[in-house]
Structures are given as structure tokens and as C-alpha cells.
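Record 1 of the preview.
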Amino acid sequence: MRLYKDKPIENAEEDLLNRADFSNSLADAILKWRHKESWIIALTGDWGIGKTSVKNLVINRIKTTNQDTRIIEFKPWEWSSQDLIMSAFFTEIASELELKDDSKKYKRLAEKFRRYNYYLNNIQVVASPAIKVIPLLLGVLLGSSFFIETFPDNSSLELLPNLIIGVLTIWLVFFEGLGGLFKSVMDRNEHLAKENNQSITDCKNDIARSLSKLNEPILIIIDDIDRLQRNQIFTVMQLVKSNTDFENIVFLLLYSKSVLEKKITDGTQTGHEYMEKIVQVEFKVPEPDMILLKKYLIDKLNLILEKIPSNNADQVFDNSYFTDIFYQQGLTSYFTSLRSVYKFLNSFEFNLLSQLDNSYLEVNFIDFIVLETFRIFEPKLYSAIYLSKDLMLGKLQNTNNFTDMSNENKKDIANTFIKDFGSSRSVNLLKTIFPAFHDYIQESFDTNSLEEKLIKNMISHESRFDRYFMLNISVNNLSTYSVINFFENLDNDESTKTYLNNIYEHNKFDSFIEHTFSHLDKIPNNLINKYFNSLNYLYNLVSDEGMISNKTRVSFLFLDSLKKFKNEQYNILSKFIDENKVSSLLPVIYSRIEKRSENYYINEHNTNIIRGKIATNIESFIKGQLEAFVKHERRVTFLLFWYNYDQNSCKNHISHLLYNPENFFQIYSVFIRTSTTVSSYGTSEDTFVDKEILSQFISLENFEQLLTTNSNNSVNDDELEMKKLFYKTEQD
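->
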């Protein structure tokens, strides 16, 4: 993974946004400056716009054009207090002049700046302790209970001046005890400053004379002024302002205008008014070329896309969908600077690659772009989406009565969500990646198929939503890779059974059904029949409970899978029947195919062959494995299938068994059914004899006679209960 470093560019080769022309023009203007006073230039722009990058380009241009120009970068934010900033300012100038040139001219100039700093230090060291404490002392005094108690009714305010003078006198006496310390510092600096019998004015004039003789300007750059505290900003500005009479000095000040002016605005004047008195020329960093910025972002996204294996490329990227998202729905509005692009790319690539399960991407590339954009630039909206899954997926219900909400209520909820969490630039993106949410607002209908959403791993599919908000796969959701791996290993029967057992035991059946159908094209051609055999195993594994049982869902999956293979349907089904002779799936499958649906490509002749194969297998099963047959969960279905195919043969065989006392109760048990009823009162079961089906094989009168005869000879309690059940059913 490449880290996109959010740092200023150093040279023109790194310039991605065509800032070089502007930077070169500014550099050339600085080099041409020849006036009696300093030139104070402000380079302004919002954070992340590229001020420091432009500064670096200016420096490179100057160094290339005139190597004699001295460039000094002062960083006031490295110093914690106003005192240190003031001292460091001239010290930095002196040090830089000495480092950059060995000539006597610049060494002498450096020494003059250093001596000038010593003078300022004298004033600062002596004055600051006393001066600073006086306002503090007065504040404490005037705000204390002492003042209140002394002048409870403000009747003796005329005494206040004398009181203050008295307090200050006491303080100065105390301060005198520290005088020796400050005097020693002053004496040391005074000695240095007066070696040439100079005053502070003489020293400053001496610097000015030396500067006027230079053939090139000294450029002093002060960056990130807006990041300083308010009092520090004033200190820096005072330093600049107090040295404007120095010739051949150019100040380049970098800051966010809105941030700085807000910090220094007070009751006396605005920040704008204050800066107007100092700055002579202001340049605003040009807005980035949005065409170039977009191109850069797309180029980097393409590089990330290339890291995604091509085996699921169709699911990963849809060019028309990306074009709509990127250009039409406003994604580009979030990217206004290289900083914003870098911030996004670093987060996006890291999180996207964590969604790779081996070689398969478990999210949609484009949907993930949108969601990561929200996460980085609109975190409040991102969190709200995660907490509003039902709303996003169009699954709102009225939990009071278990009925769907009215469209009007849904619309109100959706609009409230947009009002509370959305923004003008996020709304269209939100409605695009969540079509059902859009439909709430427009009162339309999501036309995107669930299968398409699943295949493309779109966030609008219920099984995909959660994984967009976590680095690992949800425990109840299968990864695409695991399903593909299952397909590729279908020739290993034990591995197949183990996988399906795990699906069932760990509550991943729903996810398996969805994934399997969506990725049928990944089944190797030589393993297609193995796949259908695995569905037979799964069918026998899952339960038959509920309105739409898991067995029913496996049946649907089998049939829907069969549709996908079109011309291969007959061969697939024929081989399946040969290998799974009495599968419970067979009668269900045949009933669908027999309807001659357009989705099935088995002609009438081959349909009859399939029907005959199933019937023959059932007949052999009933005749050869009677005990297994009467216990089979689909015994009635099997029996009726054979009956419908060959009525006489089936009826004769069952009648023969009924008239045989050894087999009577076995065959009788086939026609005993249990129905389950679910109501508001709970679940109830009812066991009964299905006399309608029974009558197709033997008349009820003849059956009753056989029942009486066999019951009289029976000593088995279960058989006696079976007799009672027949008459109970008759009474009911």
C-alpha cells in the first residue's frame, strides 16, 4: 500500500496543480524589489490549499535565479512565549546569515542583528517582570474582598489613588531585592552593546546602512502565523511592523486570512483592519485546477483498482455507475485540495484492501468510495447511516401493528433524516447508493434486482450493508471467497459435507442461499453435477418448519440454478436422478418442469423420460425398502407420484400390502398425517387420517373391515390407537 503523504511539495516536478506560474511570478517580483522600506507580502489561503507548497516553489525559483539572495525561514510556533519569539527572531536572522555565507559582509551584518537583539533583550528583561506584575496586582486588589470591605458604600473612593500608590511602593521595595539579578543581566548585555559606544538607535541605523548596500534582498518567511495564539500573533506582527524601515528586507507572511483575522478581532478593531495597517500586498493562493485535481484522484483510484484481482472484476467496477456518482451526483465537491485527496486516498485504500477475502473484494468499489467519503468528511452522516439500516434499505415498518407504514410517514422520516444529518452535497449521493431510501422521498419503486445488488456487493443489499462498517466479515455472513472456494472443491465429498454442515450449524444458511445463486457462473463445468448433489445433501440436512421452510428454499435454489444452465438442463437432471434415486427433491422438480415454463429447456419427450425415471426409482424403493419408505418424510408425495404415473401398478401393489396382515399397519401409517396451525394463541398440531388419499387405493368400507379384523388380532397399543384415530377422524 502506498501512503499519500500530506506534505508540501518541494519542487516544480511535484507540482500537480499548475502552481508554478503563480509561484514564479511572485518570486520574480521579490527579486526585483528595490526600495527604501521593507516590503510586506501576505500569502493567504485556507488550510490545505497549498500555501507552503507555493512558498517552496518560490524559494526554489529564487535560488535558481539568484543564488546570492538570502532566504530566512522563521517559525514562531516553535517558541512558546512572546519573549522567546522576539529574541529568537533576530537570533535566527543572524544565524542564517552566518551559515549561508562566509563573507565578512554577512558576518558583520549578522553580528549587528545579534547586538540589536541584545539591546532589545535589556529592555525586555528589566521591564517585563515589573510591568507584568503591576496589572496583575491591581487586578487582584480591585477584585478582592479587600476593596469591598474598605469601601462598602463607595463613599471614600478619593482614597483609592493613595491606596494604590502605597501598595505599589511595598511591591517595589520587594522587587528591589531581585534587582541584583536583573542588573547583572543588563550590565552584561549593555557591555556588549556599547563596545562601539552605540545606542539602540545607532545599532538599528547601522543595520539599515548595511542592508542598503546589498545588491539583493533578504527574504524573511514566516509561515503558519494563523496557528499561533492571539498574543503570539500580535508579537509577530509587531516585530514585522517595527522593522519596516529596513531596506532590502522582504517579509513573506503565510496564513489563513479568515482564521487569523477572527483570532485578533476585539472590541476596538477588526482583525481585517489591523492587518491592513501592516500588510502592503496580499496574494491569495490560486484555487486548485479542479480538472487536474479530479484527474489526479481518478488516476490514484485506478491504481488502487488494479490491486483488486480480476476474478471478480465485474462485481468490482461499473464505469457508468462511477461516472454518475463522480460527476453527476456531486462526489467531486468533497475534493477541493490535494490535502483532501490525500486524506481520502490513505483511508480508502487501507480500508478497501482490508475487505479482500483472499482474492475477492467483499464490497462494491464505488459504493465504498461514497461511504468512505462520508466517513472522512461527514462523520455525523456516516454514523447516522449505520444506525438507520432499515431506513436506508427501505424496510421501515410500523411496529405497533406489524403493518407497513404509509408512504407519507416514510417520506417524512426520510426527509427528517436528510435535514438532521445530510448536507447539500451528500443528498444525491445518499439517494443513489440507497435506491429504496430515494424511493421513500420520491414515492417511486426501487427497480434494481436483489440479485444484481448481491452480485455487485452493493451496500443497498441487506446482507452486504453491515460489512461496509467493519473490517471483518460478519459472523452470520459468508464471504464471496468462501462460496467460490466451496464451488472449486465440490469434487471432494467430505469437504463438501463439512462445509454444508458448518453452514447449517453456524446459522449461515441465508447467506449461503443468496451467495450461491449469485455466483453460479463460478462453478467449474466438470463439477456442475456435484453442485446439484450438494444441494440434495443440504436439503436433507435442513428443517421443514415454517411457512417457507429451509427445505422449500433449497428446492427453489435447485430449480433456479437449473434455469441458469439452459441447454444442459436435461443432462444435469438425468444424471442427478441416476445418482439420487429417491431424492425428496425429485417430485418437486418434476412438477415445475412439467408446467413447461419458458425458463426450462427440456422438451416434452425428455420430460417424459425424466418422469419415468423418477417413477421407476420410487416403485423400486417402495417395493424393495418398505420399512424405509413408510418412515420417509415424503412418503405420500412418492406414493402419489407413482400413482399418477402408473395408477394400476401402484394401486395393485398397495392393495396387496393392505390385505397382508403383516403389512397392514405399515401401509396404514403412510396415510396418517400431522398438520401444524399457527395462530395468535400459539402453535397447535393435529394428527388425522387422510381418507381422501387413502380412498384412491382402497374403498373406505373395505379398509374399515381390514382395520377391524387386524385390530382384533392385535395386542399392540400403537395399533389400537391407530384404529381409534380412524374413527376420530371420521367423527371430526
